[in-house]
Amino acid sequence: MKQSAWKFSFLMFWLSLIVIAMFATSSSRTSAAPLAAITGTPTEQATHTPTNTPDTSTRTPTATPHRDKPGIADPLVTKSVNVKEARIGDEVTFTIKVTNRGNDTANDVVVTDPIPDYMDVIEATTTRGNVSSNGRTVIVNIGPVAPGEEITIRIRVRVNERAQPPVGRNGVSITTSSLGDDPGNNSSEVTFGIVGEATPSAEPPTATPVPTVAPRRLPRTGTNDSDKELIILGALVGLVAFALSLLMRRLRQY
Question: What pTM value is reported for the model?
Answer without folding.
Answer: 0.52
